[in-house]
Amino acid sequence: MTKEPTEVQELAEYNADLLVSGYNAIAEARDVLTAEYKAQSKPLDEKLQQIIGALGMKLAASGQENFKTAYGTYYESTIKKVRVTCMETWLAWIIADWENRKQCLTQHASKEEVVKFENTADEPAGVEISDYTSGHIRKA
């Protein structure tokens, strides 16, 4: 019993010219639809934000925590935003009490900066650097 070829395997039977041409045609059609969607939804998004603004004003003036209506509940939530403004000061603060503050760091690394040290005498320890290959089509 033979397995049916996948769609990708079937497409791989075509020559590269036809595949690139087909890709470009589909990408152009998608781009047109995306642009139309963005243009049509922009005024709706703006109106939605205006309504949220008006509800915020009404809520602040009312002193209530929310508005419960037959159509839904309006409420506000506040989140904290954190941005490092001085890397040296930030790291010094963490290192000063490492055991209690190390959780303030994430395990993410600045790819561009770390890769500069790849295959050098100063290659960073504790970091894995690997290659990932993906296919792309650039229009002629």
Any chance you could write out the topology, listing elements then pairs?
Blueprint: H1 7-11, H2 16-62, E1 66-69, E2 72-75, H3 87-96, H4 98-101, H5 111-115
Antiparallel strand pairs: 1-2
Description:
By secondary structure, this protein is mainly α. It has a domain at 7-75. 51% of the residues lie in helices and 6% in strands. The chain contains 5 helices and 2 strands; from the N terminus they run ααββααα. It has helices at 7-11, 16-62, 87-96, 98-101, 111-115; strands spanning 66-69, 72-75. The mean pLDDT is 92.
User: What is the 3D form?
Assistant: flat
Structural class: mainly alpha
Q: Report the end-to-end length measured between terminal Cα atoms.
A: 43 Å
N to C succession of SSEs: HHEEHHH
Strand content: 5-15%
Sequence of strands across the biggest β-sheet: 1-2
> What is the mean predicted local confidence, pLDDT?
92
Tally the beta strands: 2
What gyration radius follows from the Cα positions, in whole Å? 27 Å
Keywords for this structure?
single chain, 140 residues, mainly alpha, two-stranded antiparallel sheet, 6% strand
Short characterization:
The chain is mainly alpha-helical and 140 residues long. The protein has helices at 7-11, 16-62, 87-96, 98-101, 111-115; strands spanning 66-69, 72-75.
